[in-house]
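Notes from the 1:1 (GR / supervisor)

We went over the backlog. Supervisor wanted to see one worked example end to end before approving the batch request, so GR pasted a single chain during the call. The sequence is below; no edits were made to it. Supervisor asked that the structure be written out right there so they could see what the output format looks like.
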Amino acid sequence: MRYATREIQLATALVEAADTLVEGFEATRYLQRLSDHCVELLAARAAGVMLIDDGRAVSLAAGSRHEEMTLELLEAQHGGGPCLETYSSGRAVAPVSVRVAHADARWPGFTEQALRHDVVATFAVPLCRRGTLLGALNVFTATLPVAVPGETSLELQVAQALGDAAALGLQNRRTYTRYRTLSGQLQEALSSRVRIEQAKGMLAERWGVPADRAFVALRQYARRQRLPLDRVASAVIEGAADGAGLRRELDENA
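Structure output shown during the call:
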């Protein structure tokens, strides 16, 4: 079976957009690659991504082509633009003529900047996964894409496919990072508990007392010295603890 080059490029871009569970993942570089794929597939002038949280832009990324221009156009949308509109509605903003939008006073700040850069048309799609909106992918073109009335343009469909894959990738990355952090915290808590039990056992054997009394002395000493219990336990294990101070705690609680 033979496939067109563009179809292969799209398939490759979708796989790359979904592949985020790797070591050394860099969100900015990832979004730049997404934008570059969009430009290549749509023969656009430029493309960029705006990640949004609670209605505020938290991250901007532009592809390698006309990067400075794209970042400027994304930044110009603080007062309104395709990214904020698609994020607010959760729906794509179909290709629109920049001149027409400017004449209609639609996104005046953004369209003024776009005209300065000779951007003819723009459109945007949401980055959304299972109802969670993460941001928007914005495309800037040198021509106005032609669409059949009542149908979604092919350009918008391709951009939305990339946006959906990116939303999946970013959401998976967030979940992966959250569980990695939780796993690390649980492991550290377990290791800390093991050290405390080991130190308690060492003191109980050294003093010839029950383990619970040794633990009380260990805990009281940590509190009095305003030190983490785990840190005091480690000192006991390493033989660097204040033996006399710990013993006083035992005697005071006799």
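Supervisor's comment: The longest strand covers residues 132-141.
Batch request approved.
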